[in-house]
Amino acid sequence: MFVTSFLAAGWLMQGIVATPLPFTERDALIERPSFEFHRRDPVTKRDATPLETSSHILPIQGTSIQAQGSSALQRFVRAASNVTTPLISAERGGGYAIQIDFGGTTFEVVFDTGSSDLWLAETGVQCVNANGRSVTVAQCGFGPLADSTFEGGSIANENFNISYGDGEFLIGTLGHEDVSIAGITVPNQEVALVNEAYWVGDNVTSGLMGFAFPSLTSAFPGINPALDNPNNTVPYTNWIFNAIEQGLIDPMFSLAIERGTNGGGGQLALGGLPTIPFDQTFTSTPLQIVDLTDDANAAQNFSFYTIVPDGFLLSGQQQTYRGYRNVSESPATNYDAIVDSGTTLMYLPNNIAQAVNALFDPPSVYIEEEGVFENYCDATPPTFAIRINGTDFYINSAEMLLTGAGGQDTYTGGCITGVQPGFGGPYILGDTFLKNVVAVYDIGASEMRFAPHENH
Questions:
Q1: Active-site residue 340, yes or no?
Q2: Across-strand partners of 4?
Q3: pLDDT class for 399, splitting at 50, 70, 90?
Q4: Is 147 a catalytic residue?
Q5: Residues 39 and 101 in one domain
Q6: CA distance 90 to 71
Q7: How far separated are the first and last CA of the chain, in Å rounded?
Q8: Looking at the domain assignment, is residue 54 inside a domain?
Q9: Do the domain assignments include residue 87?
Q10: pLDDT of residue 368
Q11: Domain shared by 221 and 98, yes or no
Q12: CA–CA distance from 239 to each of 118, 148, 150, 406 (Å)?
């Protein structure tokens, strides 16, 4: 049995044994049955939206919010694993924030392509901890709080109720408010004000803005959240889709995440491309429907931004894992992947995650108690690429191993790797993928487009 020396002392003192999982041990991580997904051709398929630089550019900024709490997708990853402690304990500093105008007041909110609602914490919000006990508002870590009224009026007999990764949840009321982003105003947008929360915030962001499809919104009939049924939501159109339907922007947005020593940043472009320099050679791939939630509406309509990669390329100093160099041996139908800005890491099929981590120099170690692969913070990552519609998108070594305060496990001293096991799905291409591309979310054409972004 192999235990890396830089972690051995801490683990052995705690009675923890860490065993490496070489890629030949396919049964080392238990594969769960994959979530069902299926393709659907839209009734009316639009041509690809012309790509022009947007006049509505919004800067995004890295935050210290816990990334596992910034995307609703994380609760599915956690549910599919057998980890009882926080699934990604080292996923700190993984969120990205944007500024919005909410009824004439500016707030910073987490930007998330893996959920659909816009919510802000309101004045008087009641906070609880992980055990459900009341705590001070400061312990929720919200930024400035919003007034507890809606300028456009509240919505009677409905409630807002959403859960995120690691158990965070938010409960509140719904109403209408004028909301502006990058000079685009959607009047009387349906929004939520949160009056009860378990949240681990950054003391800067006041809420969250979701850009996923409307089928994932979290409005429920009635005023008692305890009676909410996930298969009985009250659909509404969220901000990005209202902006498109009202003709305020072309039916797309694009995202370019930049690296940086202070959490990074980048641009969110509404209706067009960002202004940052990049190679505008795009590869397109159709969006898929993924049957992931208990909501029948989401199961029959687009929900997350889901694609099917062709396969994966992988090689390292020690050897080449040839099973995934030939993409025909990696059936695309097995590896649906959700592109999500609210998730820091890539979560891939277990055997692929093992193969990637085995080719680090030295090989990564799987920390079963935390459900992650870790390594020395100066380890050498393998060369890894994701093939999408025939184009290989290589992952920069900076995203293969997360060093510094944002990626170092304070308990073990190791650094978390950028590719982790997805435990049967859903598989996610998070920020460690998105930092290597400019991603175009072409809602009108029901497709995504990617261009390489070296981003050094």
A1: yes
A2: none
A3: very high
A4: no
A5: no
A6: 16
A7: 38
A8: no
A9: no
A10: 83
A11: yes
A12: 8, 20, 16, 31
Q: Give the position of tokens 């099973």.
A: 323
Candidates 259, 276, 277; CA nearest to 267 is 276
Report d(CA 140, CA 251) in Å as an integer: 35
Residue that terminates a domain, selected from 249, 281, 305: 249
Give the pLDDT score at 387: 93
Q: Output phi, psi for 13, to 5 deg.
A: -65, -30
Same domain, yes or no: 318 and 413: yes
- pTM: predicted TM-score of the whole model, two decimal places: 0.84
Residue with more model confidence, 420 or 166 = 420
Measured between alpha carbons, how far is 43 from 25 in angstroms, rounded to an integer? 45
Tell whether 1 is covered by a domain. Answer: no
Domain ranges, residue 232: 94-249
What is 121-162 written as a DSSP string?
EEEEEEEE-TTS-EE-HHHHT--SPBPSS-TT-BPTTEEEEE
71: number of Cβ within 10 Å: 31
Are 215 and 337 members of one domain?
Answer: no
Give pLDDT, residue 450.
98
Domain count, the chain: 2
Q: Please identify which of the residues 112, 166, 228, 250 carries the catalytic annotation.
A: 112
Instruction: For 281-424, list the strands marked E by DSSP.
Output: 283-286, 289-290, 306-307, 311-315, 337-339, 346-348, 365-367, 372-375, 383-388, 391-394, 401-402, 415-417, 419-421
| 128 lies in the same domain as 240 | yes
Choose the final residue of a domain: 192, 219, 249.
Answer: 249
Q: Is 352 within the bounds of a domain?
A: yes
CATH of the domain at 409: 2.40.70.10
Please identify which of the residues 117, 228, 340, 409 carries the catalytic annotation. 340
What does the DSSP 8-state code read for residue 30? Answer: P
pLDDT tens for 320-378 read 444 333 333 344 445 789 999 888 899 998 889 999 999 999 999 998 877 899 999 99
